[in-house]
Amino acid sequence: MTRNIFSVINQREHCDQFVNIFTFPDCIEELRFWQENILSLKPSELFNIYSDFHVFTDASDTGAGGFVSDSAYIFHKMWLNHEKVRSSTWREIKAIQICLKSCNKVLRNSTITVHTDNQNARIFSSGFWNNSDLVQSSELKMLLSHLRSTVIDSRAKTTVSKYADGFKRFLAWAQKYPEIDSILPASELYVSLYLQHLMQTLNHFSLVETAFYSIKWAHKLANLVDPCDSDLVRSIVESSKRILNRPVQKKEPIDATTIKTLFNRFCNPRTLRDLRLLSICTVSYAGFLRYSELCSIKANNLSFKPEYLEIFISSSKTDCYSKGKSVVIKKKNTLLSRSNFVRLHKSR
């Protein structure tokens, strides 16, 4: 809610330049919003005065970094290929672990506060994970660090990201009300009120359902009493399905006529782009492939047989254990056959 204010500030040529904000109505609306709502926000201390050091870390898809406040200690790291495919939660926790190890000399025997923008790290400091400090052996600590990633990997990467974002929204909502003093575990009353808030502000029950399972997921990871097990909370989710339900508007299916139309238009492909378009459309249609499955196909995944084309799909939405599967497409003795187009595209 400060995007327009920030945009006005960036329009200045120097830091002392006067800006007439009355010419920017969006900026005025933001200032009015903060004037009316800032007192209702839950206050939070920027720093814990009882900590000897404050450690700041962050992680992205490509790397991680961190530093110790008021010191010259910093670290940065680029993820290896097998680390890039791990969940965002794993990368955030790994960044904290690497930062603490890198700065061990200055942090040893000190009280530390870790600052991270990932809410899953908060989950791993609650409930079951409060006992982490009891682990003293270096070997057991290594097992503990692997245990966190193990429980995260019990769900698909996309599911973890979805639930983490859902729990983060619940946390942001709760922080607006000072009376809510506990998020993990959360109270059945405040979870119910949050779901009621979503029902009154959103237009589809799937968002309420996502919030429900996100809160449930966070409590399960922390091994805490789950407020979503309450019959009352469940009844709110069921009610949202009845109140916010909309008729399903299915997309028009692609049939053989559509594929023939593409062939008639690009029957003599002059460019590799046209040939690629025909290959993509025909293979996805004949093999019932999702786009995510199609775009991950590599040349060594194709196997041309006398009677058919075999495509190995290394990962799929329905392949939760990543075992891989093969799709077979029958070959026809025509120039416009699917396998012929794929073979021609591969040769070019």
UniProtKB/TrEMBL annotation:
Domain (Reverse transcriptase RNase H-like) ranges: 51-125
Alphabetic keyword roster: DNA recombination, DNA-binding, Endonuclease, Hydrolase, Nuclease, Nucleotidyltransferase, RNA-directed DNA polymerase, Transferase
Keyword flag Flavoprotein: no
Gene Ontology BP, a term: DNA integration
Pfam families according to UniProt: RT_RNaseH
Gene Ontology MF terms in the entry: DNA binding; endonuclease activity; hydrolase activity; RNA-directed DNA polymerase activity
SUPFAM superfamilies linked to this entry: DNA breaking-rejoining enzymes, DNA/RNA polymerases, lambda integrase-like, N-terminal domain
InterPro entries in the record: DNA/RNA_pol_sf, DNA_brk_join_enz, Integrase-like_cat_sf, Integrase_recombinase_N, Phage_Integrase-like_Recomb, RT_RNaseH
Protein name: Reverse transcriptase RNase H-like domain-containing protein
